[in-house]
Amino acid sequence: MRSLILLLTLLVSASSGWAQHHLGPTGQRQADQAEDQFEKTVPPPVRQQSSVDFAKLKSDSDELIVLSQSIHSGINDVRKGMLPKDLIDKLKQMEKLSKRLRSEITP
Question: Is 49 among the domain residues?
Fold first, then answer.
């Protein structure tokens, strides 16, 4: 009788251990199911295509060319010891234009 009880206890403990080993912890399974369900309810991110004004980009780049040419001649004056009064303003304008162009082009 004792051996029968011992055998039943051993079988019950072995079967519960086997079930947990093969089926995994209950909390983990629930977390996996919750994650799967959450992924199904969340829509994929919508990538909005920004409207780029190509005419504005073209005019900004043309203005950038004109500014760079005028700065080039201004640097020659600096080499001679003269600082054109609008050189710093032109450099700042070039910086603003280049930042604007970069932000419009970069996604």
Answer: no
What single DSSP character describes residue 42?
S
Cα atoms in the 13 Å half-sphere on the side-chain side of 95: 6
User: Which pTM does this prediction carry?
Assistant: 0.48
| Among 96, 66, 72, 98, residue whose Cα is nearest residue 84 | 72
- Asked whether the beta carbons of 87 and 74 are under 8 A apart, the reply is yes
65, 57 Cβ separation under 8 angstroms: no
pLDDT tens digit string along 55-73?
Answer: 999 999 999 999 999 888 8
What is the count of structural domains for the chain?
A: 2
58 and 94 fall within a common domain: yes
